[in-house]
Design brief:
The chain is an alpha+beta fold and about 350 residues long. It folds into three domains: about 160 residues; about 50 residues, SH3 type barrels, CATH 2.30.30.60; about 90 residues, 2-Layer Sandwich (Alpha-Beta Plaits), CATH 3.30.70. Helix content is about 60%, strand content about 15%. The chain contains eleven helices and eight strands. The strands form two sheets. Strands 4-3-2-1-5 form a five-stranded antiparallel sheet. Strand 1 and strand 2 form a beta hairpin. Helix 3 runs antiparallel to helix 5. The termini are far apart.
């Protein structure tokens, strides 16, 4: 009986190997999710033993590429089990090692995204205790640098697995980089300009800024340039070197906003009525809760050609353009009501023409 079984196996050895390879691949494919979940649970217990470092959803997001690695591992071991020619097995080993590098790179990139979010929270705590402002823009810049380094190391490792002379490539890149740096001085200036923006922090993403050449909201800051969305909704890409070399006004960092204008009353306005009008306008402005009363200046300012001018200067607590315009509109309506109640009139430009009737 054993001899018969041995003869059957010997005569159908390749078929049995194929079946075994299929079972190996199916086993890896079926249990890849379960194994990944088990690794997530173990890491969750180890990392959160003393304090919360990473939650379940974060670990699941970071380690999801392990499923692909297990599937590739199943395919590799299934093909190895077929006892294919030696040259093909060596090719499979290199392909498997490259797949392993790609999956590890994928995991590191996901870890970088999650770690940057955690570091934002950590930097906010530093802001409270150490007065260190590690803002979102700087962290985005550093995250991009880390990702470039990950891609570079991964690329070098993959080239090494293919048998490429990595030392020669690195040397060539170094010499080429020196030549490129000399030829690309403008790019280098933009890079240093970007570093100045990120470390000096004259503005950040979502800030409303203006320069002598452009005004709008900052959408993104990269190594080379800054993207600004203008109010007509056009996207302007400004080189960092030209941006840092010009005066920058950051309107988003106003703690109050100044309103300054004047009104003119007619010249037949009595002195007592003028004093009452100025007093009532001052009281009305100062009673507005959205206006800072300590900074209000409302005075009978000057005698114009066709009017008695009252100047108004006050500061609003809200700084957004829409709120600022709304507050000014409220003040203007109230001024119209006060002038009407006092029986006065607004002046408008007029000229009086005197004609001398000369007799012949």
């Amino acid at each position: 009986m054993l001899t018969l079984i041995s003869d059957i196996i010997a005569s159908n050895l390749f078929l049995f190997r194929v079946l075994a390879s299929v079972l190996i691949f199916l086993a890896f494919w079926i249990f890849k999710s379960s194994v990944t979940k088990g690794i997530v649970k173990v890491l969750e217990k180890l990392l959160n033993r003393k304090r919360q470092i990473a939650d379940h959803s974060t670990l699941t997001f970071v380690l999801t590429p392990l499923k692909s690695l297990l599937a590739v591992s199943g395919l590799y071991f299934a093909l190895i089990n077929l006892h294919l020619p030696t040259g093909f097995n060596q090719f499979l080993l290199k392909a498997y090692r490259i797949s392993f590098i790609i999956v590890i790179t994928w995991i590191l990139l996901r870890l970088c995204d999650c770690a940057s979010g955690s570091f934002f929270q950590f930097s906010s705590k530093l802001d409270e205790h150490l007065d260190v402002n590690l803002n979102k823009t700087l962290m985005t810049f550093l995250k991009k640098i880390v990702k470039v380094l990950i891609f570079t190391v991964s690329g070098i490792a993959i080239l090494s697995e293919t048998g490429t002379n990595v030392t020669t490539i690195i040397t060539g890149i170094g010499l080429g980089g020196l030549t490129f740096a000399l030829a690309a001085q403008d790019t280098a200036q933009n890079l240093f300009g970007g570093m100045v923006i990120l470390f000096d922090r004259p503005f950040a993403v979502d800030d409303w800024i203006s320069t002598p050449d452009i005004e709008g909201v900052v959408e993104d800051i990269t190594f080379r340039s800054t993207r600004i969305r203008t109010f007509p909704n056009a996207l302007v890409i400004v080189p960092n070197s030209s941006l840092v070399s010009s005066p920058i006004t950051n309107w988003s960092r106003m703690n109050k906003r100044r309103a300054s204008f004047s009104i003119g009353l007619t010249y037949d306005t009595p002195k007592e009525k003028m004093e009452t009008c100025v007093s009532r306008i001052t009281e009305m402005v100062n009673q507005n809760p959205e206006i800072i009363p300590e900074d209000t200046v409302i005075r009978f300012n000057s005698f114009k050609d066709s009017s008695l001018e009252i100047s108004l200067v006050f500061f609003t607590r809200p700084t957004s353009f829409s709120d600022f315009q709304r507050i000014k509109e409220t003040v203007n309506y109230s001024i119209m009501q006060i002038v009407e109640e006092e029986g006065l009139s607004f002046a408008f430009p007029t000229q009086t023409l005197y004609v001398n009737n000369l007799s012949k």
